[in-house]
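Lecture 7, part B: from sequences to assemblies.

Below are the input chains for today's worked example.
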Amino acid sequence: MSLSVSIKKRFKGFNLDVNFETSGEYLGILGASGSGKSMTLKCIAGVETPDEGRIVLNGRVLFDSDKKINVRPQVRNVGYLFQNYALFPNMTAEENIGAGLKLPKKEKKIKINELIKSFQLEGLEYKYPSQLSGGQQQRVALARIFAYDPEILLLDEPFSALDSYLKEQLQTEVLEMLQLYKGEVLMVTHSRDEVYKFCKNIVITDKGSSVLLGDTKEIFKKPKLLSAARLAGCENISKCEVLSSHSVKAVDWDILLETKETLPQNINYVGICAHTFKIVDNDDNKEEQNIVVCKINKIVEGVFEYTILVENENSEQKNNNSTIWLKVRKEEWDNKKSKGNLYLRIPEDAILILK
Amino acid sequence: MDWSPMLISLKTASLSIIITFFVGIFASRWVVGMKSDKLRIIIDGVLTMPLVLPPTVVGFFILLILGVKRPIGKFLLEFLSVKIVFSWTATVIAAVVVSFPLMYRSARGAFEQVDKTLIMAARTLGMSERSIFWRIMMPIALPGVASGGVLSFARGLGEFGATAMIAGNIANKTRTLPLAIYSEVAAGNMEGAYGYVAVVLIVSFVVLSLMNYFTLKGRKYTKYTNKDEVK
Amino acid sequence: MKKCISVVLIICLVFSLAGCSDKSASKQAIDATTNNNAAEITEEAAAPAAKEETILIAAAASLKNCVSDELIPMFETKYPNIKVDATYDSSGKLQTQIEEGADVDVFMSAAMKQMNALDEKELMVTDSIVKLLENKIVLIVPKDSDKNITSFEDILKADTIAVGDPESVPAGQYAKETFENLKIWDQVTIKSSLGTNVTEVLNWVAEGSADAGVVYATDAASNENIQVVAEAPEGSVSKVIYPVGIVKASEKQESAKLFIEFLHSEEAMSVFEKYGFIAVR
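Predicted structure of the full complex, as structure tokens:
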């Protein structure tokens, strides 16, 4: 099981330049909207053609611009789940499922019935897509794809069309169904939760280029790139100045950070995720490193946590990016309600070093 | 009242709509599938021309091709003994040429409105291009295509200028309803014209109602999914 | 942006339509004011046609070539203050238009029938009606025709025959009369394509669409793609008389009269004869 993609395509506004390889594990493609994720999937499926490059699936060359190979989508044996499911509105669920099947009538009927059972669509066979709920449509779309046993499954933002309270349930269901699938799975999404849940590995795209490839959890922990950090959801990112091999200044917040590890020279930003700050009690620990005294500007109450917007009290900088976001679980905050200033400690492993 | 113009018009319009329907669909499929934008603009312009030219000018161009003094017409006459001008066939040709753009544009509009992801999905599922056209595009585009057909039927029925030029005004052969009406009016015979005009009005009204019916029916497929239903 | 463009286009369309139809109305308005001014200024000058005027003549299609190419320019040179507009069509259609109130000053018909009809309805100045020209009815075939049609009797050799609609086109009436006298009209009808004016008939034969046709001698002279094979046999058809008259509702009867007088002049008659007409003197 392997897929290797290396393609370029010119567009109005940006250029697609994506390179990655995967073998067997679920690969997520994470990027902002319009960063070329869907286009990458479409090139793999063959419904769009890159300007140059090479795509190889399980040893079969699907596209090679040098050798002028461009296999028709019809025979690439690729399963593509579109964001809007692309169910044919003029066909019933049953007919949709059978649309890609090339079998004699009897066998076709048997196969379709099997799929209807596996995807829990009994009773809905004769309904038209407009009569089905979002979740049911998704199951029909998946059944339609599984019908012809594709070598790779391309999921294009599979959960973005669903209401949030259905999402969780469906995500679990879909995950279960996919356990049975033996091929490659590629999932495009702009949601970090989804990619964290589903995909062992991840490719990060930024303005059309693939910028980072690796283990999902690792990357989320240590994003290494500004775009990756943003996508991973890091709320606080500041321009930085490296002062020595063990100290760096977060310029926007006017905070000096000291590290035990040696710092690389070519870093431009530091990031601190909102939930990684440690609130410490008052003055005892003033000598400790990486402590910042904050002025609280605003407290926003969420369902399970507070989002607190603060500023470095001692900052000499006054710029747009001086706000620091802090997220604290409600119980923790309520218990530690200290009078006066807020003391935050930044653990060394929470400092993200970014290019 | 002489019923022959009505029968001739009916025969002409019926045959012409069958021809126009399929030619229009295939032409629009061809244009929609074109890769080059420049070529598409040029071809579309040419195919739409009969709609904007005065019918007599259209008749003039047809005559340039099929007239017996012109190369092609002469060839047909000498070698195949076929004379198209002043025959009933010419009424059909005139009707087809002037009503074609209506069919072509309606069909093209209907096909272009089909959700492109459906076509992409169909391709990944392994459906051949022909299968995609007949099993997905046509059914979804059918209301728009049908209303185009109805519109072009009406146009073919009312065709006059080009018909007079290439088919002539021969009673029981090429005198269509519009030609008959014109003759009656030119002769000052208003009473004779009324009967024919009434027929044309009724047919036009029925035709327009059909067109509206098809357009409404088509709304069903443009409202694609019903994601709001909770299950 | 799109809305603006369509609004502008619609306005242009409306103006051009209004312009077309209202030409005569606005011209009349302009004429009226210039008339008043001219009348005031030139009170002493007793020149009869000192006022600027435009007259509209409605003439049969077969008159178009000689009238518009030569006679009108000649008249306008002679009378620089009178402008002549003209409309040409089948006499039947022109008759209908005059009955419906068209702003015509002079009517030149290709047959007495239409003129008489208007006169009976008291739409013409009866005294002004004169027989101006005579024309001949001829049989024509496409140049290089191989059907060997040499006379009116031969016409049934043709597969399709072009004649004017007898109901509305005088040339068609005459054709019908000729063929009735030859006892073959019923058979001719079956193969006939009826034109709504003589020019249409001529074009059908010139293009070869019809194998033969019946038109005026003057029409045949104007088109080189046809050949005349015969004149209507003596006595088989009544004389083709072209009358001319002033429409009673005309407000420019003076100028109209001048025009008709001019048509009678020697110079005008020699032009008519050049085109194949016969002068009625």
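Note for the exam: Chain C has eleven helices and eleven strands. Keep this in mind when comparing with the next example.
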